[in-house]
Amino acid sequence: MSIVEKFASFEKDFRPNLLKLPNWFAVKLFSYGRKQFLKRLYQDVPKEKANIPETASVKLWGLEFNCPIFNAAGIFKSGKGYEMTARQGAGAFLIGTITHNKRNGNLKNNILHPFAAYPNSYAASNWMGLPNDGINSIISKLSEIKKQNKCPIGVSISSSPDFPEKEGLKFLIEDFQLLEKTQTDFIELNESCPNVNHGKTDPDDILDNHLIYRLEKISSIFLKSRIRNLPVILKFSNDISPEQVEAIVNLCVELGFDGINFGNTSIDYLFCSEFIIKEEKRLYEYFISEFSGGVSGSPLKEKSFNLCKTATTFLKTKNLNKEFHIIRTGGIFSNEDLQKSKEIGVSLNQWFTGYFHNFGYYGHKLYEIIIDN
Question: How wide is the angle at C-alpha 277 spanned by C-alphas 235 and 269, nearest 5°?
Answer without folding.
Answer: 40
